[in-house]
Design a protein that fits this description.
Number of strands: 13
Radius of gyration: 32 Å
Distance between the termini: 55 Å
Oligomer: single chain
Largest sheet: 5 strands, mixed
Structural class: alpha+beta
Number of helices: 29
Shape: elongated
Helix content: 40-55%
Amino acid sequence: MARYTVNNYTVENLLANIKSGSIAIPEMQRPFVWDGSKVRDLIDSLYKGFPVGYIIVWQNPDVKLKDGTMSIGKQVLIDGQQRITAMAAAIVGNEVLDDHYKWRRIAIAFNPQEEKFEVSNNAIRNSSKWIPDISPVLEPAFDSFSFVMEYCQKNDIPEQMSQINSIVNKLRGIQNNSLGVITLANDLDIDSVTEIFIRINSKGVVLSQADFAMSKISSNEVFGGNITRKTIDYFCHLLESPEDLKDIQKNDTDFSNRPEFDAIKWAATKVSPIYKTSYTDILRVAFTYKFKRGKLADLVSLLSGRDFETRDFRIEIEEDSFHQLHEAVLQAVNQTNYERYLMIVRSTGIVRRSLIRSQNVLNFGYALYLALRERKVDSNKIEKIVRRWIALTVLTGRYSSSPESNFDYDIKRFSAYDDPTEFLDLTEAGELSDAFWSVNLVQRLNTSVASSPYFNMFLVALVKAHDKGFLSTQIDVEAMLENRGDIHHLFPKNYLTKKGVPQVQYNQIANYVFLQQEINIKISDQAPCEYMQEIYQQCETKNPIYGGIVDIDELKENLRQSCIPDGFENMDINDYSAFLEERRKLMAQKIRNYYWSL
């Protein structure tokens, strides 16, 4: 069976199919982001008979209705929305929804004498040489003869009447120009659809599985998929641009009067810099926690009504899936749930977004939180499990590759145990053995990448323990992270460079520490045996030079918190390699103690 078919549609027929609903444009798939010049160029290409690319639709499967009859699936537009919207705006006169969720017209003007298109403006509207808006000219009942006569009289060009008439008819003929429509078969899975899309699309744009799922959701009005899509889209938009709340209320009054809008408008007043979710994140969280699955391809199948056992498609499954997804999305955007989860994340020691680079870790953590809450697990147990799981998945890189498969496996295992702590315990026993802490983690700390998740976990451990910055008596690491404290080389970079140490060695993360800027300046390019001796002297004379420490016991405690090896105050270039090896072990032990304290 062919994987797809290619047919030619006239512009007029294509727009008619979209208007009738046989080809479904997802209402909120994307706001219209083209500027007027792009719309003008598209119409100019149609006028000149140039190709404007393929439109790609995915044929939905036929669904068995409750009475046993079959409902033929619609075609869902998955590529070409901007072009279709542009044609509808210029040719039919439709308004477009811009990226501020405001409806507006984009009128394209045409100069018959020069055969030139422009975006309409006041000067054009006041000129007799221009047709200020081509959409009335393209209406079926348009009187070309009368228009041409009047146009030529206004511009005093009666001798060009025949020529202008031909040009106006050519303009009207753009609706008869053909576009290629690629229809992907209804039995293709998402991976196959993605591959075909990439091979066909000349821009090489990669559509994600979430894009396909959102197209499927937002094109369904029967079971409220379009409302679910708006809930997700507006929520994520408000997290990023809270100032657009009034625009949404003004320009989408129908939705702003719905309970779903009441459920999300809090996002415009409280923004978390740690966990900002895109529509992909919310969709993944809601689906994973509610359906106990991790692969978004399964969501598309369920929303199509797929019965995984019989392999056919049934309306009851489609209806139930849309209902469950809507319910799950409302839980994911719920203010109480969102903020309580963020409290758990912060209580883990993750107080800045830079400390956790993996959005997948945060997404699964939130899905797990919602799943456990739905099961009415004790709140203290939920906090413990979620905190530990977040830290575990960062340390092991669990979601760095094949995240969907791992999401699928993990959510099913957590759901399978009467006590979800059992799965956590089993995973810890397998992934976080003594060998992991004493060998594997030490080796993973042997890197020069400052953004390493393992160095970040070391910083998180410092935050969780309320440890002070290096050589500081007052300011802790959390405050330094919030206020952009300095990362300092314990063996200063310039000192090591002068000794011939390459960058990959002097930038070892075991040589990094957080401290105040003024302390960093005072240390300058001295070897540890030099600047540390000055610090010991200030403790003896009670005359603080570095950070205010004037007590030996306080100094030793500060060095212990920062995992500084014994004898550091006597070290020079000859001790550098041994210093790195010993500090990696101390850092690994610090992270280990932190993890089990959770």
